Amino acid sequence: MLRRTLFALAFSAFSFSASAASYTIAVEPNYPANQAKEIYEPLLKYLKTSTGHTFTLKTVNNYHGYWRDILGNAPTDFSFEEAHFADFRIKRQGFVPLVRVAEPTQFALLVSPEDTARGTQGLMSGAIVSMPSPSLGYLFLGEIYPNPIAQPEIMSSAQTWKDGVDMVFAQEAKAAMVPMYIASQYPNLESVNLSRSLPGRSLNASGKVPADVRKAVTNAMLKLKDDPAMIDILTELGTQSFVVSSAADVAGNERLLRRVFGYPKAAPKPAAKPAATAATPATPPKK
Question: Where are the chain's structural domains?
């Protein structure tokens, strides 16, 4: 009886090991690569514990590189990104929406209290800091100042959204364009413009990822809020919970990318049907 039980346990462990696979998750370059790895490492470990699969973070140095990878359909199994990128991948590359942060995405143009009187027009003689194009903050700035001849200097040298806030405090810039989950941390700054709201950042899967893996990842992300030990993960991601997302949630937001260099204007081909059975995960390209 004991021998039979040990055999069953060994067989179960073997089966679990044999079915485990490695997957990559591409994330927007909101942090330098080393900092991004520290921030996302707890989430990657959590997903491994919850699903039995291994997850590796895929990062690039800046938004130009990120956009180049998207345009080239560089291999990745999952992506965690804002609605304009998510819509592009879903429509044109067959990605499958899984979950998104519960809170909507909205950006605030923050200034020191003494610079609020004239609103956005009062910034024409100064500089505004943002992450580079085609980050959502940069694209929203284009909606505030649609005329490139009549707009403030836009500094896109920030490596994190918080860099812009630091530059406002240091009086190196008049304003900073930041997402609300960052803006809420600085009550001593004031907003002279709030962008329109979009669905929050979403986790999406390549159509090549097996359906059972997509389901396992979805369930794990939805359960994050139920585990007090995982609060730090949610805090790092700037949310209180994840909710199920759909293609309809982000539909139409890829239009924000129309003025970005390289945007393919041709109508997208029908997306490939998502995989239902096991498939070989993408391998990160060599750096």
Answer: 21-104+199-257, 107-194
Structure tokens at 149: 């001849």
- Chain center to CA of 100: 9
Q: 134 preceded by cis ω (within 30°)? A: yes
pLDDT for position 17: 40
Nearest to 144 by CA among 189, 82, 196, 200: 196
Q: Considering only the C-alpha atoms of the chain, give the largest distance between any 2 of them, rounded to a whole number of Å.
A: 83
Q: Give the CATH number of domain 21-104+199-257; options: 3.40.190.10, 3.30.9.10, 3.30.1360.30, 3.30.70.60.
A: 3.40.190.10
According to DSSP, the residues that pair with 172 across neighbouring strands are none
Q: What is the pLDDT of residues 37-87, one digit of tens each?
A: 999 999 999 999 999 999 999 999 999 999 999 999 999 999 999 999 999
Amino acid, single-letter form, for residue 284: P
